[in-house]
UniProtKB/TrEMBL annotation:
Keywords: Membrane, Transmembrane, Transmembrane helix. It comes from the Eukaryota. It is found in: Membrane. Residues 269-469 form the EXS domain. The chain crosses the membrane at residues 66-87, 107-130, 155-175, 187-207. This is EXS domain-containing protein. It is a multi-pass membrane protein. Pfam families: EXS (PF03124).
Length: 472
């Protein structure tokens, strides 16, 4: 037993699958016959070949950095091809139809493009939190299988590829006269998104999709106590009111078969630009958030919830006064409704800005940014810098005003301007998330420390029990 030594060739890590182990006895001077000797040598040769294969295969494998650069190169090539095909398709249209052509294309794909931008930035938020001391999983009450920032970015990458590809196909087919095939592109894309979200099987991160859909349901129908994730997602939806508006018009045209047609240009059509459903879709996220605040006041009795509800109610006059431009005479709009709209817009912007800084962010906690425990280049540049707070507060005020201006229904045809403002609002919300999550994490830590300090102070009954050696 102790005289036999296993050869390194017969190691289970180096031995080829299916080969027979060979044990050499160093004390033996000869082998029984020549056949066994030749068999032994052949197996040794096979084992040596099998041992060198994994090493050579690992040697020719490209490095992760090289693979990443190759993927980036493919992504840039794909982006160039999409831009080239899209531009050529737009240039095929006559000058008088080009704006309407682009407007309709942006209408169908604008909601998903904005959602893709939000997913990318949400991944950045999670990346910052993952490298800091903010336990966002505990804040949102997530399970162990929640999506990480890497998985979020993978989803964002696929969205970035699929949505512009479908848009390019729509532009190409529409400009080449294939109207029916062009009309099917946004329909198929929307159907695919819905199917992925509601797919009942355990693929595509079922637990995360269920958590998202459940939170949406709790926002729409707040039949139980409002959690932080309910408030948080509803706040994000208010920054995506443009998505709701375009979704309503896009789905309406799909249902009434007005995709890639000019019927929607008529003001009195079901899905026309003067439809009453447009301001209703814009105001819907604010009504959800308002209902949450009222439910919170009912459960807790805090007057702060009523003040917060008042903030969201100030967005309602901005939206509906602007929509009156299509239903009143121009003189009435200029002399009466426009001044009222401007006044309500100023009230909504300043009130929302005040609430962001004093309530959602809590300026008293502005001592350092993001509370990072692991140094990174970006966090080192941002950590404790005063200009960061000046930038966040100043940009929040400016973007609050521009976002309120975007809620105006009379800007709905300026698709490039509205898309830019909507993207800036999503960027404002991206900044808002950092301080909102950090403020909530600070509150949770303060409550935990308070509970621990109270638990360390035994009351008179506990002292009496301990003195009498009683066990409870």
């Amino acid at each position: 037993m102790f005289g036999g030594i296993v050869s390194p060739i017969n190691s289970p890590h180096l031995r080829k699958s299916g080969s027979r182990s060979v044990i050499y006895d160093l004390g033996a001077n000869e082998v029984e016959n020549g056949a066994d000797s030749s068999l032994l040598q052949s197996e040794d040769a096979n084992d040596l070949k099998g041992a060198t294969l994994p090493i050579s295969a690992a040697a020719v494998m490209p490095s992760p950095m090289l693979l990443w650069r190759f993927k980036v190169l493919l992504f840039l090539v794909w982006g160039f091809i999409c831009c080239k095909i899209g531009w050529d398709s737009v240039m095929r249209m006559s000058a008088d139809k080009r704006d309407l052509f682009l407007y309709e294309a942006f209408l169908y794909y604008n909601p998903l493009l904005l959602a893709t931008l939000m997913v990318w930035l949400w991944g950045v938020n999670l990346w910052f939190f993952a490298h800091g001391s903010v336990n966002y999983a505990k804040i949102f009450d997530l399970d162990q299988n929640h999506l990480t920032h890497r998985e979020i970015w993978k989803w964002a990458t696929w969205m970035t590829i699929i949505v512009p590809t479908s848009m390019t196909a729509y532009l190409y087919l529409y400009s080449h006269g294939e109207v029916s095939y062009a009309a099917s592109q946004p329909v198929l894309l929307y159907a695919a998104v819905v199917m992925v979200l509601i797919f009942p099987f355990d693929i595509f991160h079922l637990s995360s999709r269920f958590y998202f859909l459940r939170t949406l349901w709790r926002i729409v129908v707040p039949l139980q106590a409002i959690s932080f994730s309910d408030f948080f997602l509803a706040d994000i939806l208010t920054s995506m009111a443009k998505v709701f508006s375009d979704l309503e018009r896009s789905v309406c045209r799909m249902v009434h078969r007005q995709v890639a047609t000019i019927a929607w240009l008529e003001a009195d059509s079901v899905c026309g630009s003067h439809s009453v459903a447009i301001p209703l879709a814009l105001v819907l996220p604010y009504l959800f958030r308002l209902n949450q605040c009222l439910r919170q006041y009912k459960d807790t009795g805090e007057r702060t919830a009523l003040l917060n509800a008042l903030k969201y109610s100030t967005a309602v006059p901005v939206i509906f006064l602007s929509a009156l431009k299509y239903h009143v005479f121009p003189e009435s709009w200029t002399n009466l409704y426009r001044p009222l709209w401007l006044m309500s817009a100023v009230v909504n912007s300043l009130y929302s800005f005040y609430w962001d800084v004093t309530r959602d962010w809590d300026l008293s906690g502005f001592t350092r940014i993001f509370k990072f425990s692991k140094p990174h280049l970006l966090s080192h540049l941002l950590h404790g810098r005063k200009w960061v707070y000046f930038w966040v507060i100043g940009s929040n005020l400016v973007l609050r005003c521009t976002w309120t201006y975007k809620l105006s229904a009379h800007l709905r045809h300026n698709h490039l301007t509205v898309f830019t403002i909507a993207s800036l609002e999503i960027f404002r919300r991206f900044q808002w998330i950092f301080f909102r999550i950090e403020n909530e994490w600070n509150k949770m830590n303060s409550k935990t420390q308070l509970q621990l300090s109270v638990g360390d102070m035994p009351n008179e009954e506990e002292k009496l029990l301990h003195s009498n050696n009683h066990t409870v």
